[in-house]
Each structure stands twice: as structure tokens, then as C-alpha cells.
Amino acid sequence: MDSSRPLKQPSRPGARVTAAMVAARAGVSTATVSLVANGKTRGRVSEDNISRVRQAIAELGYVVDSVGSSLARGVSSIVVLVAPDISNPFFAKVIAGVRESLGADFQLLLSVTEAGEFPRADDIRRILALRPAGLLVDAPDAAFLEDLSTTGPMVLLDAPGLEAYAPSVNLDVAHGARELAAHLASSGHRRVAYLDSVTGTATFAIRRTAFLEEAAARGVTVDPAHQISTTIDVGASAEAFAAAWPQWQQAGVTAVVCATDTHAYGVLQEARVAGVRIPDELAVAGFDDLPYSATSNPGLSSVHLPAARLGLKAGEQLRGLIEGRDLEQPQLTLESSLIVRGSTERATAS
Amino acid sequence: MDSSRPLKQPSRPGARVTAAMVAARAGVSTATVSLVANGKTRGRVSEDNISRVRQAIAELGYVVDSVGSSLARGVSSIVVLVAPDISNPFFAKVIAGVRESLGADFQLLLSVTEAGEFPRADDIRRILALRPAGLLVDAPDAAFLEDLSTTGPMVLLDAPGLEAYAPSVNLDVAHGARELAAHLASSGHRRVAYLDSVTGTATFAIRRTAFLEEAAARGVTVDPAHQISTTIDVGASAEAFAAAWPQWQQAGVTAVVCATDTHAYGVLQEARVAGVRIPDELAVAGFDDLPYSATSNPGLSSVHLPAARLGLKAGEQLRGLIEGRDLEQPQLTLESSLIVRGSTERATAS
DNA sequence: CTGAAAGCGCTTACAG
DNA sequence: CTGAAAGCGCTTACAG
Predict the structure, then answer these.
(1) Which domains does chain A have, with CATH numbers?
(2) What is the pLDDT of residues B22-41, one digit of tens each?
(3) Residue B309: CB partners within 8 Å, gap ≥ 6?
(4) What's the CA A104/C1' D10 distance, rounded, in angstroms?
(5) Helices A66-73 and B66-73: angle between axes, nearest 10 degrees
(6) Across the interface, do A89 and B89 touch by the CB < 8 Å criterion?
(7) Which nucleotide comes closest to A42 if you measure CA to C1'?
(8) Is the Cβ atom of B28 within 7 Å of strand C at any atom?
(9) DSSP secondary structure of A224-249
């Protein structure tokens, strides 16, 4: 009599609906409710009870409590994404890809640390205490993976050279780097500078090494004195370029390759201030192909990396592991390739 | 005898260390372990037992299992951030701010939906089933908040007009919008177009309304026929501008205001293609002041919004609620202001 | 100050 | 097909 509110509104707010309440309403045990709620009725629950329970669930607005469920099962439905830096548009895309592949069955928990730094053993413990269904680890170093020593499902993203630790999805940045070297060489550049990222992530070493090798093979000189590095930050990069440019210019440098587009934006910005004409006086290129590289003036030549696909594939692989499937290809590599824009297209291509 | 491995390495990997194991080692009950692990020993545990337990915890590498803990307490240590779109550099900064204020005590769970869409009742239930310690909701609509009807701690971000639902942190976008109108008026513009976002988020309505009002007050005409809208996407915006420009030009439009910098990038891009000189032929401005707005050529005039502070403040407020404190100021508003750059700085300022 | 015990909500052998 | 019961790991009155 005191339940004057319409039943459509699933229970009064605040009062948690439990399996016991559903069981009582449907006239069955909580075991049966659990079976129905989890779709494990196959040959274990009568049609009659299935529909009773379904109705009770609908009427009460019951949702399986994931804390209780996780405790009983031993794992939660949480997938943890460990990443060193998310204030990066590239990373936003990776996340979007992960979300897409994970779907509604898993919740994505972000474990972020200071830009460029990696979680310590402490943080890891706290994460593992959540009993995640799986782990996605972006751009880790070996030390971190040693620390981790988890036995659960795990997939690495952008972790070249660490394939021994877990199934991985990597980017073939070397390919794009070589294309870039070839492009600059064929445009007539003979002396090139390299603006690297200070982050010790493996991908940056590969970008640089592949570029330097191909450049050397094509007769392009990248003097060690013309290789500098800064944090991934427009301002820091602009400053570093401003400081280095006079020497570079004097040494006959006509192009600068940046480890990320973000670095390149700094160069573009400072070049404008300093009156350096791009691309005629200096060609500039980056990696990542962020959305704004198509918009800057001139457009920024950049090695395109499939961020969303990286996240998508990693999520798919992880799902496979969580569901206990054998992965057909534990190691995936996604292509990269150079997008040429105005920042390297000289009128005087050789 | 069979434990030949060094004890420093906290237990053998894979074997979960429980409070019972710690209790056994320290020669106390699990109740005491719990008290020590949670720092609730004040007048309840002897110094002696405290140090025994601490030592056992260290030796075994015990970490409180958060699933068990959450079930017993009734809430988890998870803070859920509900947001309509994260593939947006603006949002990456908001997240960084949230992380900073939340610290190590809480885990940040991202609940993302399709760009521009909001979670349905279904998704909400699944989130609430995690028993979050608190909710952070970015740019919600009233319908969503009605659905939510949660009683737990919740803080809204960028939710102007919805202060009745929960403590909020908002951005004073109207202020920047008015500054922008004043700036364009004083630069001599008399006919201006407006490129809006199709997302029905309140902030966009406020940006537009405030701009239109101030423009009108200053004798600047924004013909309804010159107000169009697209998704927040460089390409979509570029296309829309390409289609609209001939008419705008004919009608004497000399400036276009974009609801976001992302829209503005599309305009800049297309303007270059179409040979429209910026700012002389057309002035362009946006909102958000994304990092690349300082770098584009010309630099993009934009209303700066403090993204990181938005996340930071919201996180702080939420912590307050979770800890049961009364908020001194349940409603916070952060300033916005116009940053003038080359895209609106005509040589011929009146 | 301390520990035995109940309970959080669920899942899963197990016996019927 | 069904339900009583044990158990997941922890926290918190409660009695001592």
C-alpha cells in the first residue's frame, strides 16, 4: 500500500536491487537468478523460470553488482590501460580504438602517470588489486614489465623489442622513417638536422635509427652535432630550435626531421618568428600525422601512424586472451607511411 | 625448505597474498591486519602489533584487495569520468587535471561514448554497478542527469544551467565570447558569420548567444543565413565553409567565428585552398585555444578555456564530497578570455 | 587492545 | 532442472 510510485521506475533510487530480491520476486533461488542474469541457462534452467526471472529483473531494474561478481569470479570486468602520457592527441585516438574493440563488456580504466614517466611497483600493485580482466600497456620499458610480472591477460602497444614479454601490437615506424629519408634525399637535401624526443621510448630510437641509416645510404649527412632533443612540447621545441638554428644554418642544414609532429609545430612557430622561409630555406617534417598537420601553413609533412587501429587491434587481441582463445598472430605490426605536404615540397626539387 | 627463493621478492608471482596470510605471519587476527593496512590503528592496535603487521605486510608484499574491500565497504575507490568525447585535445587536458587532483587514492575510470552522444540508462547502470566512489560528468544534458538519479558524490563539469543537479565547475565562456565580439567590432567588421557545432551541448549555445548579443550591441550583423553548423571535425568544417563561402563573400562577410578551434582549423585549411587571404579578406576566430592555435599560420585568435584547471577543480570538489566535507563553494566558474593572434589582426584595424 | 563472527553480493560445484 | 551452502577477501560492530 505504501508503494504508491509507479513500478516502471525501477525501485526507489538509492535502494540497491540484489539478486536475492529478484529471486524472491520470481520465486526461485539466487543461484537461478545468477544463471539467468549471466546467460548460462543452457540446459540448466527451465523456460518457465527463465521468463519469470527475466520479468523480475526487468521489473526491479536489477543489474548484477560487479563488485560481488568480481569477488566470486576472481576477476573484474575492468581492463586497465597503462600509459605514460595522455595529454597527446595521438593518444586520444588510441583510446578511442581501444574503447571500440572492448565494447560494453569491459570498462576501461586509465592508469596515467606523469608525462614520460612510468608507474612504479607501488602503482602496479594498486592496479592489480583491482583484479583487472586484462592489461593494455602502451610504450613500456623492460624494467616496468619485469616489475609487473603479472600472469593475467596482457597486450603491449607500441613496444618494439619487448615481444618476449607479451603479445604486442606495434607500428612499423622504420618504414615511414626510411620513406622520409628517401624523400628528403630526392628533394636535394644533403645536410639534415634531427630533433628528437627526450623520452627514452623505444619508438623514438627506431624512428631516429631508421632515418639515419637510410639517410646515410643516400648520401645525406646528419651530423651528431645537429641532433638535439627536447620534451614533447611545442614551446620547448621552439626554444631548442631557436638556439640551434644559427649553427645549423651556418653548417648548411636545409631540413630538420622531428621525432613528433608536436616538435615540428614548435619549429614551424619559431621559424616564422625568425623569418626562416619554409620549405625553401628549411624543410620540416615530423612523425604522427596529427590532425593539425594537414592544417598548418605550410602543411606539415609527416609519417602517418594509425593510432585508432593501434588501439583497436590491441583491444581485439586482449579480448582474445581474456576469452582464453589462442591468438592467431600474437605479434601484429601496423604500417606507417609518409604523407608529403608543403613543409618539405620545395619548388626546386632535384 | 622448498622456499629457496629470496623473500625480498614479495611472494611467488600469481599467488595472491591475502590478509589471512599476513595475519598468520604476524600472529594476529585479520581484523588487526585490516586496521593496520587502513591506518585506523589510533587507540585500537598496540604499537607492538602495528609493527609486526607492518613487517609482515612488507615481507609478503601484501596489498589490500580492492574487490573484497569494496564489497565490505559498499563503495570502491573508483571515480568514473563520464564524457561524450575524448578524442579531443581539450579533453586530454581535462583528464590530466582530474588525475592530478585525485592522486593515488582513487582510480580513474573513463566512460566514453560515441562522439557527441551520451550514455543510455543501460550504460549508467553498468557504471553504477561498479559502486564508484564518485562521479564526474562532463557536459551532460538534463535528460541524462534525470536518468542517473544517483545519490552518491557527483560533480558536473561544463554543465551550465544544470547547477540544480549537483555541484558544478563551469567555464565562463560568455565572457570570452563578448570579448571576441568587441574585438571584431573594433577591428571594423560589420558582417560576421558563425560556424557552430551540431552537438547540442549547452556551452555551444552560450558561446553563440553571448557572441550574437554583444555583436548586435556593437552594430555587427550576424545574419541567421550566415549561421551554419557541423560536427567537431576539421574535414566537415572545411567542407561546410567551402560550400558557404561564396554566399558569405557576396553578402560582405569579413569574419567568421567558430564554436571550436577545430572548426576554425577547417576554415583555415579551406581558405588556403580557395585562396582566401586571412585575415585581410576574412578574419577567423575560435574557442578552446588548443595548443596548435599558437602555431598555425596565421596564429588563430581564440577564446582560451582553462581545461586542466577545469579537471583539477572538479576533482577537488569531488574529493570533498567523497570525504563528506561540505563544499565551501558548490558552484565554481573559471574565467575565459580572448587571445588575439594573426587570424584576426588586420593591418587596417579601424 | 584483541579476535570471533557476521555480512557485503555474487558464483559455482554439489547433492538431489 | 533446482536450491542450500560454501566461498571469494575484506571490514566492522560486538563482546571480551
Answers:
(1) 19-64 (1.10.260), 76-171+308-334 (3.40.50.2300), 173-305+337-344 (3.40.50.2300)
(2) 999 999 999 999 999 999 99
(3) B97, B334
(4) 28
(5) 140
(6) yes
(7) D1
(8) yes
(9) GGGEEEE-S-HHHHHHHHHHHHHHHH
